[in-house]
Structure formats: structure tokens, C-alpha cells
Amino acid sequence: MIVGLTGKICAGKDTFASMLPSDRFTVIDVDGLGHQALMHGRQKIREAFGDEVIAPDGSIDRKVLGRIVFSDPNKLDILNGITHPWMVEEAVAEARKAESEGKIAVINAALLESMGLVRYCDSLVLVTAPYELREKRAAERSGLSPEEFRKRSEAQKEIGLSLFSSGRKVVTIINDSDKDSLSRQVSFYYDTI
After folding, report:
1. Which of 113, 167, 184, 187 holds its CA 20 to 30 A away from the CA of 61?
2. Strands 104-108 and 25-29
3. What is the pTM of this model?
4. Domain layout of the chain by residue ranges
């Protein structure tokens, strides 16, 4: 079984994923694959965005690249066109491997829908939280200013919109309280699948 897990920035999908018992679930962190995809597509990224996105050690400077792509939707589309195909291929391969080992694979991806990963999933989990709470979490976790958070949130405005018309079961987790409340929802979720 493959479960798609998604949610907007700082909704709590990573926390949800971390609470799933590892003896039954394998979580595939698509954001983590994104970091690998940056190195995999480094030359194309350099060609598209210039030398300023290359850090002194030769890696991609994610902060510089983030400022560029989150301020221009067209540039974000260019980056996604470079990185997403490789990320999808890797995520699906990892999910199939987990299935072959008798585990439930969880593809944890903010951009589950736009990357085309929904079609590989048997069911879906959408983690939600109010905008103000997500903004507060982003400031605490990553030091994002309200304006930076707004830009990233705008770039994710489509998240969750097509899940309910996908023909798959969708479970909505409302993460508007503390970790104990989320933990109870996670327990209920994995007890019912």
C-alpha cells in the first residue's frame, strides 16, 4: 500500500510522518529527495539561474535559489521542471521497495499533486493548520519573515485542491493544537488502515 501525505508549509506533515511506527511504515521524504535532486540537476540549475546559485563548495546555495524562485512563479516552474522528474522516479522506486518488504509506504510531499504522485497512491492524508499558526511555526522553525512565509504559502496555494476529486480515500488531519492532539490523530489513523 502507498499513502500520499501532503500539506502546506508548516502544517505538520513531517511531524505526522515522524509519529508513524517504523515497523509498519516507511516514510519517503520527497523534500529530502529535492536536496539530492538539486545536486543531480546542478548543471542545468546553474545554466538556468546563473553562478550566483552555486555555493563556494560547489553545491547549490538553497537560500539564494529560494529567494529567486519564490519571488517569480515562472522561475519556480523552471526549477520544478529540472528537479521533479528525478524526484518522482526516486520516490516511486523507494515506495515500491517498501511495499515489497511488506511495509506501508508513505510518500511525504508538499507538492504531491503537482508532481503527479497522487496517481501512485492508494490513499491520501492531508494535514492542515490555520494560516496564522503555520506562519508562527515558520518563524520559529526557519526564521521566515511574514513576507517570506506569504510568498511560500502563495506558491503552495493549490495544495489539497484536487485530492478530493482523485477517486482515492482522503483523510484530513487538523493540526491546530499540540503534539499530543496530533499524536492521538496519528494513532487513530494507523489503527484504521
Report:
1. 113
2. parallel
3. 0.88
4. 2-192
